[in-house]
Amino acid sequence: MIAPPAEQLRQLTLAFERFTRRFKVAEATAAIANSLNALDVQALLFIDDNPDCKLGDVARHLQVALTTMSSSIDRLVRRGMIERHRPETNRRSVALNLTQGGKDTVAGYMEGYQDACNAMLEPLDPAERADFVRLTLKIAQHET
Amino acid sequence: MIAPPAEQLRQLTLAFERFTRRFKVAEATAAIANSLNALDVQALLFIDDNPDCKLGDVARHLQVALTTMSSSIDRLVRRGMIERHRPETNRRSVALNLTQGGKDTVAGYMEGYQDACNAMLEPLDPAERADFVRLTLKIAQHET
DNA sequence: CTAGGATAGTACGATATTCGTATTATTCAA
DNA sequence: TTGAATAATACGAATATCGTACTATCCTAG
After folding, report:
1. Which of B18, B26, B47, B97 has its CA 20 to 30 A from that of A61?
2. Could you report the average pLDDT of every consecutive run of 10 residues in chain A (144 residues)?
3. Which nucleotides in chain D have some atom under 7 angstroms from a protein Cβ?
4. CATH of residue B120
5. Is B15 within the bounds of a domain?
6. What pairing do the DSSP bridges indicate for beta strands B53-54 and A82-85?
């Protein structure tokens, strides 16, 4: 791969730093509304993306101690947002899935994200929007 | 403004949800390396972006209680990353600025962001990269 | 086929963080 | 010039995070 020009990269970095900061604030607001903390929300979104994942997977992905994740999952179970169950294939682990309530909550977050994305598209004309979405998808689908 | 097609918006939302999750994880990793917590890092980035801002500005932007921000700023001052000073124009408030150490820390984060951005550009060819950066800047510069 | 080690998660207590209330200092305005 | 409004801090209660110790399950070498 040919490295992109340094200036291009610098500008992109600044822009994305702002984007993520905005998304994060939007997320924090929504978290407060649902009286969930930031970690719990991230866990919820990861489980939505990875059904039947194990507790350790979430902990590793979110870079927190296993015990911290265990507490987080406790809270989410207590709030009726996710379900634990022991898979027969490996009864040491717990598989995690969203309940309907959890799905509804995720949908609420996604709506917030959607509003933010909509605002992003605003300054672009229709052709530019199509381009931007196409390139974004190309990046997103290129799994790391 | 004409609303973008629903499907376009949905796809963009999913892609950006993943982006921000990745950035957040990268940030958490860097935060742990500097033994700072998530809030402190966000505060640092905001102050970098808004020199001489007031403590209340940061609290409002990051949607946390004023006392929480006060604690966060305490920690950052103790770690020698920012400086408080009372502006003569309004001696109730405190103006916040990064020290050299704080600037270095921010630069470290930006480097992490830059790596993540670089990885994003990887699946695109040079023409697409130029397009993507151009459109991203157009969005970022359209201040909300 | 079973004993020892490895893996997956939980219980519990220590430390740190967040937040609400009360307080101090400063500014504004009637 | 006094009272209300603004800006931040002090302090204590509630909560979150994390490390250590523990339980349960799985794997594998003898």
Report:
1. B47
2. 80 87 76 87 95 97 96 96 96 97 94 89 95 95 76
3. 6-12, 15-21, 24-27
4. 1.10.10.10
5. no
6. unpaired
